[in-house]
Amino acid sequence: MVGTRGGLLALAMVFLVAAQVAAAPVEIDLTEGVIDGRIAVSFWPVKGYHGQMLEDPSGFEVHLVPAENLDEESTQPAGKWIQPSPGRYKYWLEGPDSISPFSSVMSYVGGPFKGAGLASATPVVPAGIVALPPELELPEHVMLRLLHLDSHNRGEFPQPEMSRRASGEVALRGVRMPAGRILAALFDNRDQEYLAVSRPLEVSLGEILRVHPQPPEAGTDLIVRLERPKILNDLTDYDVKLKLTGIEDGAREPDVVVPTPTRLYAVWYGIRAGYANLEASSPTVFLKPQEIVMRPGKVERYGGELQPLPNLDVHIELPPELPLEAATLEILRDRPGKDRVRLAELAPETTVFRFEKLPAEELEVILRVPPWGFHERSDMSDGLDHTIFFQREPIYVDGTVYLGAEPHPAVVTFRVYRMGDDLSIQTDDSGHYEAVLFNPRYYLVSVALKDIKGPPYIDFLDEPIIESTTLDFRIPAGIYRVNVCDANTGQGIATAEVSASNIFSSNINPSTHESDDKKTVCQRAVTDQDGVAYLQPLRPGKLVLKVSAEGYLPSEEIENSVEEGVETQEFTVNLVPIETPTRLRILLPTRSPAAGAEVRAQPALGNTNAIWEGRADAKGFVEIPKQAEGAFILIRHPNAGSLIRKWRELDVAGTGPVWTLPAAAPALKVQVNRSWGEPARLAEMALFVDNLRLTGITLRLFAGASSSGVDRDGFWQANTLPQAPIRLFAWMPGVMSEVLAGRYDGMAVSIPYPWQDIIELDAVE
After folding, report:
1. Which pLDDT band holds residue 619 (cuts at 50, 70, 90)?
2. Hey, where are the domains in the chain?
3. pLDDT tens digit string along 502-538?
4. Lowest-pLDDT range, 26-30, 105-109, 243-247?
5. d(Cα 735, Cα 209) in Å, to the nearest integer?
6. In CATH, what class is 312-391?
7. Computed over its alpha carbons, how large is the radius of gyration of the chain?
8. C-alpha distances in Å from residue 263, one per residue of 125, 237, 282
9. What is 395-475's CATH number?
10. Is residue 726 pLDDT above 60, yes or no?
């Protein structure tokens, strides 16, 4: 039997099931399509791309090329019943001055005859001839290869490409090709490599085109052929974007692209020698990252397979206490930035959900059942379909809240997912509560005591909650008061913000009464009209206070001891009023006001406290205090690049100095490795811009980064850099003191702008 590819982009083979094509002058008796009791096949020309009438097959031949050996080509007369050897063939028709505009594919089995043969009607169009120069001496192992660039797109839907191979006298004499643009290449069958590839050439009807491809004069040419994974069922499957990255020229798209239903061809000319990464992006298929060596003066080639993007099945098995009325499934890329890939709302009866055509990379899947969030990861980089399961069982927790030795009513709140996703339970009058949890892990718990001033008491549990249990909260009794006063007048300052860190020891050894396990609980409070703020109950240990208020310089960090058994403890903080500020106006790159810009004055460029912090008003104005003279001013805005420079108080009439923020660059992504290739976990970063070395909190704020060091995978990302060249340096903690002393400044790596997608950096050890 004969089989063909079907679907939306069907190949150009039309099988005739009647004895005569309607209104055609040529008749076909299908009952004659038998040889030795087995089915036979014949091929008939149809004039033009959309022809309906059979042509006289005299003078036409069908060219058959076995799929397993594309260098082998045989011919049979058209209009005759034939039986080729069983197998899969590429074929086209060729006449005295015409040829099929594209090739077709058939699978022939030659099964028993059942009353009718099979005939294929194939379009033919006028052709020209392509040949090598007759004086060229072509070695036996060198072959001329031709690829048509346009004919596959001239039908209603894309068709298989017309490509041909010829060697020896045939290549010198010439072969027919449809009119239009072609590529010609010389291929060495012995060494299995291309010797040369031409630029696009034009074939004219009835004329001979002499071609002689030459090796690249400079750089490297690259020929890529990618097999498609399956029969295309949708036109979106046809759209694949290719590019080369990691080359000196920057990312480059192909100079020539030929997308056909079965494969994708692409050619680049004159790439600088070195290494290149071949990347493909598509709504439906992907290519595993490929590194290609680019040798100067050579034509490199790469042949690979596009694979279907993988699917992910999510199975959900949750207890009745977790209804799915407002549940969502979110998929993020498991890499810096955590870009969202998909978001889906779930029906209450959902048990299985499928995400189709996902990126072939590591993904994070989040099931949100407010206020809960459950995480799973799936590595899709192998291109295979995957399945993950969300299974949860309820964990029942109850207990009592005590203030000192006595039970006390309160609101107990478990942080169950992220900031704002809390589970709050009101105790009874005896302080008893009951809660249902669904994630076995460590929990942050806050306890808001009834009728007690100050923020809630925060408890970091020493052990994870992994099973149903009883959990009591014993809160130290005592009142902790902070008085915030004007340093000049002694008057209380209202609405001052108090940041307090209670540092204490946990898991104390009963035999030594000591512990190396230090914990810190942070809280914030605001002073009342008398300048007084109350803190939550504190554990014995140390209290670090930092206070700020409008019109005053922020305080330094102030350390106090917290005594055990003290009923009331008071702390006093005096703030210095801001002296004669200078008005600075900040503009965006568009010259519009940088409303809300964050402004920070600091004495140095590393881990340092701020002298003063503020924000620009709606017109971009901010008042810089006199105490900031000689300090560094750091300015950050989400719609611009960051700016840092030394502050010199200026005596400027009118509105004062005006600073314009630079345009923002795209995010800078950095991969930091150790000398043996593993991610450099714990490495710290330094960034040099305008001859300033930024580290620590200064770097984090200037770059809009989550940290001044790399994450667990060795990644660091800067989001608010200006469009300017920079230098980068990374070091492991053991050499930090030498780095800060400037010993390694000369080893920083220069990063020109615009930068590559990902910068690779080795950490100094």
Report:
1. very high
2. 2-127, 220-308, 312-391, 395-475, 479-496+516-575, 582-660, 668-762
3. 888 876 554 544 555 788 888 889 999 999 999 988 8
4. 26-30
5. 67
6. mainly beta
7. 38
8. 23, 11, 14
9. 2.60.40.10
10. yes
Residues in CB range of 402: below 8 A, 6 or more apart: 408, 431, 472, 473, 474, 475
How far is it, in rounded angstroms, from Cα 358 to Cα 284? 8
In this predicted model, what pLDDT tens digit does every residue of 72-103 receive, in sequence order? 999 999 999 999 999 999 999 999 889 999 88
What is the assigned CATH class of domain 220-308? mainly beta
Q: Measured in Å, how far apart are the chain's first and last C-alpha atoms?
A: 69
How many other C-beta atoms are found inside a 10 Å radius of the C-beta of residue 207?
A: 12
Distance CA 388, CA 82 (A): 54
Calculate the average pLDDT of the chain. Answer: 86
Query: What residue ranges in 168-213 does DSSP mark as E strands?
Result: 175-178, 180-188, 193-197, 201-203, 208-210
Q: Given this model, what pLDDT does residue 741 score?
A: 54
| Mean of pLDDT values over 257-279 | 89
The domain covering 479-496+516-575 belongs, at the CATH homologous superfamily level, to Carboxypeptidase-like, regulatory domain (2.60.40.1120)
Choose which CATH entry (2.40.50.40, 1.10.275.10, 2.60.40.1120, 1.10.510.10) describes domain 582-660: 2.60.40.1120
The Cα 74–Cα 79 span in angstroms is: 16
Q: Are 117 and 33 in contact (CB under 8 A)?
A: yes
The span from the CA of 586 to the CA of 584, in Å, is 7
Burial of 600 (0-12, 13-18, 19+ CB in 10 A): buried
pTM passes above 0.90: no
The widest CA-to-CA distance across the chain, in whole angstroms, is 117
The model's pLDDT over 585-605, given as tens digits with 9 standing for 90+, comes to 999 999 999 999 999 998 888
10 Å CB burial of residue 85 (0-12, 13-18, 19+) is exposed
- 395-475 and 668-762 agree in CATH topology: yes
In 10 A of CB 309, how many CB atoms? 19
DSSP letter for each residue of 257-300: EEE-SSEEEEEEEEEPSEEEEEEEE-SSEE---EEEEE-TT-EE
Mean pLDDT, rounded, for 392-409 = 94
Q: Tell the CATH topology of 2-127.
A: Immunoglobulin-like (2.60.40)
**Full DSSP string of 120-165:** EEEEEEEEEEEE--TT----TTEEEEEEESSGGGSSSS-----EEE
pLDDT tens-digit readout, 648-661: 755 443 446 899 99
What's the average model confidence in pLDDT over 233-243?
74
Section 697-707 average pLDDT:
91
Residue 66: count of CB within 10 angstroms of its CB: 16
φ and ψ at residue 115, rounded to 5 degrees: 100, -10
Residue 712: pLDDT over 80: yes
**Is the CATH number 2.60.40.1120 carried by domain 668-762?**
yes
- Beta bridge partners of residue 352, listed in sequence order: 315
Q: What is the pLDDT of residue 25?
A: 55
Please give the C-alpha separations between residue 597 and each of 635, 642, 665, in angstroms, as whole numbers: 7, 10, 17
pLDDT value of residue 7: 29
DSSP state of 84: P
- Beta-bridge partner residues of 315: 352, 389
State how far the Cα of 658 lies from the Cα of 586, in Å rounded to an integer: 6
Q: Which residues contact 434 (CB under 8 A, 6 or more apart)?
A: 396, 397, 398, 425
- Cα(226)–Cα(240) distance, integer angstroms: 11
The DSSP code for 742 is T
- Residue 2 binned pLDDT confidence (cut-offs 50, 70, 90): very low
477 or 513, which is more confident? 477
pLDDT at 12: 29
Closest C-alpha to 258, from 226, 229, 230, 232: 226
Hey, how many other C-beta atoms are within 10 angstroms of the C-beta on 49?
Answer: 16
**Residue 185's pLDDT is what?**
96
